[in-house]
């Protein structure tokens, strides 16, 4: 297992929802001079995505090398084909990740962009309008989707660039020798400068050498937590080890709070609710965010550890899909993100143990059945290695 490889002297800005993210992203694309890599799970067919697409096309026409990776499931089969045909008439190079499940069920769920190897964006925000649900229904939301990304300037940009460039090369068909060289390159660790501020590291999840890296980064942080842990996520169905890390932290006095999204998928909500009684009995505070769609995958532990990324707390993100988070060790950034999560908690509805101790038998049966369905599905997908 690789630990987080921190680099120092990074300048990292927190961007909340599309209101802050897309102007920053499009502004950086408009200023690009040499190269753009963009990797996203969803590249939608809406006005927001169109603005990003136009910016990419303009950059390509002025000579910038533009390479775009989209996921076949996230973007959709029909729209993936449309994008391929549209980009064929521009200088943009476009590759679709795992069409027709040729590589099994794995998806690229990452949201990465690197421009001129000088600026990078990492987070949970797809290329879509945050005033509509991100599923096929495309229903209007009452408020912008609650989500986050970071803009990075500094040495960490090179790590993000190396990762998305390697993804591009792999999708183009790397020969065995090239794959071995890539494997060796990713083993090189960056030594942190202990006295420098804004330490940050890129943590990825793949199905080769980084199968549990993101989960272990969370578990390590929880294991060292002293005072508090605030975690926000839309899909909560972690394995036994991560659940126990949360419980153990709470039992030794750490104030653990989960801010969870609900109302998107009925089965997912039932699976999540199946965990509530044991977590609440352990002293973990649970708050459900119902103001709008919660899509953020963020956490703050104590006053100097924070993460922003694409990884959910479910089996698909932690054990199957390709994901990317940034871990930041910086007091000022952590304080800013903590304030955002606390504001989300204020907008949420706290769950109390009494509500789940007195629920009707048919609801309890539904929660248990949903958990068994989920566990069976994950066992099939992960070939029994889903804990």
TrEMBL record:
<dbReference type="InterPro" id="IPR001736">
    <property type="entry name" value="PLipase_D/transphosphatidylase"/>
</dbReference>
<feature type="active site">
    <location>
        <position position="109"/>
    </location>
</feature>
<feature type="active site">
    <location>
        <position position="297"/>
    </location>
</feature>
<dbReference type="Pfam" id="PF13091">
    <property type="entry name" value="PLDc_2"/>
</dbReference>
<dbReference type="GO" id="GO:0032049">
    <property type="term" value="P:cardiolipin biosynthetic process"/>
</dbReference>
<comment type="similarity">
    <text>Belongs to the phospholipase D family. Cardiolipin synthase subfamily. ClsB sub-subfamily.</text>
</comment>
<keyword id="KW-0594">Phospholipid biosynthesis</keyword>
<keyword id="KW-0808">Transferase</keyword>
<keyword id="KW-1208">Phospholipid metabolism</keyword>
<feature type="active site">
    <location>
        <position position="295"/>
    </location>
</feature>
<keyword id="KW-1003">Cell membrane</keyword>
<protein>
    <recommendedName>
        <fullName>Cardiolipin synthase B</fullName>
        <ecNumber>2.7.8.-</ecNumber>
    </recommendedName>
</protein>
<feature type="active site">
    <location>
        <position position="116"/>
    </location>
</feature>
<dbReference type="GO" id="GO:0008808">
    <property type="term" value="F:cardiolipin synthase activity"/>
</dbReference>
<feature type="domain" description="PLD phosphodiesterase">
    <location>
        <begin position="104"/>
        <end position="131"/>
    </location>
</feature>
<keyword id="KW-0443">Lipid metabolism</keyword>
<dbReference type="GO" id="GO:0005886">
    <property type="term" value="C:plasma membrane"/>
</dbReference>
<feature type="domain" description="PLD phosphodiesterase">
    <location>
        <begin position="290"/>
        <end position="317"/>
    </location>
</feature>
<keyword id="KW-0472">Membrane</keyword>
<keyword id="KW-0444">Lipid biosynthesis</keyword>
<comment type="function">
    <text>Catalyzes the phosphatidyl group transfer from one phosphatidylglycerol molecule to another to form cardiolipin (CL) (diphosphatidylglycerol) and glycerol.</text>
</comment>
<feature type="active site">
    <location>
        <position position="302"/>
    </location>
</feature>
<dbReference type="InterPro" id="IPR025202">
    <property type="entry name" value="PLD-like_dom"/>
</dbReference>
<dbReference type="InterPro" id="IPR030872">
    <property type="entry name" value="Cardiolipin_synth_ClsB"/>
</dbReference>
<feature type="active site">
    <location>
        <position position="111"/>
    </location>
</feature>
